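User: quick one
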Amino acid sequence: MTAAARNLGAGLQAERHAVGFSASELKQIRADFPILRQKVHGKPLVYLDNAATSQKPRAVIDAIVRYYETTNANIHRGVHFLSEHATEEHDAARRTVQKFLNARSASEIVFVRGATEAINLVAQSYGRARVASGDEVLITGMEHHSDIVPWQLLCNEKGAKLRVAPIDDAGELVFDEFASLLGPRTRLVAVTHVSNALGTVNPVRRIIELAHERKVPVLVDGAQAVPHMKVDVQELDCDFYAFSGHKVYGPTGIGVLYGKAELLNAMPPYQGGGDMIASVTFEKSTYNKVPFKFEAGTPDIAGAIGLGAALRYVSDLGLERIGAHEHDLLEYATGAVSGIPGLRIVGSAAEKAGVLSFIFENIHPHDIGTILDQEGIAIRTGHHCSQPVMRRFNIPATARASFAMYNTREEIDELVRGIEKVREVFG
Amino acid sequence: MSDLRDLYQEVILEHSKAPRNFHGLAHANHRADGVNPLCGDQFTVYLHMDGDAIRDISFEGSGCAISKASASMMTQILKGKSRAEAEKLFERFHKLVTGEEPAKGGEDLGKLAVFSGVSEYPARVKCATLAWHTLHAALVGEAEAVLPEDE
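Assistant: Done. Structure below.
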């Protein structure tokens, strides 16, 4: 990492001067998550697979139940009481997301199924309109498959080229290489905010500044960032920002694409159907205004309401404090596993969020995962939908523990004990 | 709770650490690649067929202890077997690891019976069968194994 990139990371460091949670606060938070009470294979559940999906607080579960028990109706069409009420709640959820991301307008918030669909929407709508033969799309070497394949599909269709900025041995973007790949034919930059496989926090503000100097818009994949840090899309000045509800304590099946109004307004629709039109004849249809232009069909109303509840829950606790708590866990875990002979951490970026990827002796991560599971410890094992990252480090897979606001140091002690158990089994 | 030792039997651990027939095969006349897209485990199975008989068999690749031990023991047991015997063994082995057949019914599977513990770990069934699916692909002349979704 260059000195300048480190300086940019200093802002995040400063944010982490926020204090985490006291023991009693943490206990209260854990009590808000019903699933954490359960036992797995007779052991208390230690859930360390939060980068795959987070657990849901009671507030989210209740919001969904309440919606179906008291409010359920289709939105934007009924004149009846329930439909109006459901429409209001759906609109309120959109305003909650707007506030959460500090977007200028709620019309810049498009509800989608998740970060994957958000990226596909941009690739298929913005990309197909703006990327032509010989053009380039620039990504980084630490992207999730969901920020690789949609661009490959686009580039294959258009005869465009997908360029990939490399990462170094620590798992950080080689910024100079990125800068030199950002060329006259680059039509879009798509970059992850936080790497799901390594935990690396990318210097997105600096990436966006540089790209904008060259008049190139930037999409940020924030799926792994929004649960851990305050994101302000106006401050970042990103053109698109994508995230999934289920990774930030909301339900599955709902996610968000933020897009600058001027870009969204100029983009063609992504899918056709009801709700996205202003008028339809067999000859021609005119389209609804944004964001509805991109929301064909009955949306996941309950999901949006559940997401709204999740974002309120997170905002009430404060992302600075959540980030500080998770940073403490990451530091504690890094220290704890570093003492285990034969264990190697994969990804040692100066700025990391919530992810501890490792390999242990010559034991395959799947075997580690199965043995930890018998101890009640849930981690992710495999390539984490980031096969190019695994290839970069010349390993087939890693074991990954990833942290959330409700995790504790004691759970990390359990993880360390579990890893010792792995050694026992494999002798 | 199932005992981990039922899954990670000594024989399995031993084969995973020192897999047999773990190399390429210069005189192979059949080969196929098998990938488990869920985890990235990948093996190549090589066969030297003499008519319907498996004269020689080997494998290369990377995977977990279960998949590697399974591939290793598969190559041991199949050397000298006929195509039909190999397919029959795959069928029996598949039933064993999916729990369709009680463990004791696996007696004629010989050493492969040590994989009966896999049936208690549904997420690991594909690990045990990856090499066999790859073998099947090689036998029928497919370049790549297709793993069934419902396994």
